[in-house]
Amino acid sequence: MSNLKDFNPNNVSNPNNNIFGLPTTENDAELILLPVPWEVTVSYGAGTGRAPEAIFRASMQVDLHDPEFNEAWRKGFYMRPVDKKVLMKSDYLRKEAELYIDYISKGEELQANQFMCKTLKEVNEGGVFLNEWVYTETKALLDKGKLVGVVGGDHSTPLGFMKAIGKSMATTASCILMPTLT
Fold it and tell me: Which of 35, 62, 132, 173 lies 20 to 30 Å (CA to CA) from residue 20?
């Protein structure tokens, strides 16, 4: 665990540290926040792709005092850096999705436009990519014994996370419930 002995959570947060200004590393933290910069399938407004970075910046203003869970921050929280490749893919596919939504909102037939068929296929493949990426990242953290939280706002953000949690729980349950043969 990071040396939090001299850390004063009541001081001004240090933006060179991690979330909430805590001087923790991924190895030291009990809870890892996985930012998912994605907004391909949002149905109203934009901004979820940049939400993890905004939340990180705003966390520097959060008061860590909690009367019910005194010094819970000592358990260690860490937010991974935003994966810029995922963000760039989201930005590209969001534009594609907007073209598609505009096209079908006018009552146009999808099969009549090969470009729109290709666009839909590309956006759907992006969703598969995202779900697999979130699953892989979450599973790797769970395998290290970490608690994992996902930070993002697109509707599809938590699917890979839930899959990893489900598989992790199934593995744990089968290890616990597996009868021994004598």
Answer: 132
Dihedral, 12, 17, 18, 20 alpha carbons, nearest 10: -10
pTM above 0.90, yes or no: no
Cβ–Cβ < 8 Å for 10, 2? no
Domain boundaries, the chain: 19-160
Residue 38 DSSP code = -
Span 8-59, pLDDT tens digits: 888 888 888 999 999 999 999 999 999 999 999 887 778 899 999 999 999 9
> Which tokens go with 33?
């926040």
Per-position b or e across 4-17, b if 16+ CB within 10 A of its CB? beebebeeebeeeb
Could you tell me if 29 and 146 are in contact, meaning their C-beta atoms sit under 8 angstroms apart? yes
Scanning the structure block, which residue is given the tokens 């994605």?
A: 38
User: What does the block give as tokens for 85?
Assistant: 């490749």
**Burial of 51 (C-beta count, 10 Å sphere; 0-12/13-18/19+):** buried
Decide: 82 and 55 in contact? Cβ < 8 Å: no
CA angle 135, 136, 139 (to 5 degrees): 80
Say if CB 40 and CB 87 are below 8 A apart: no
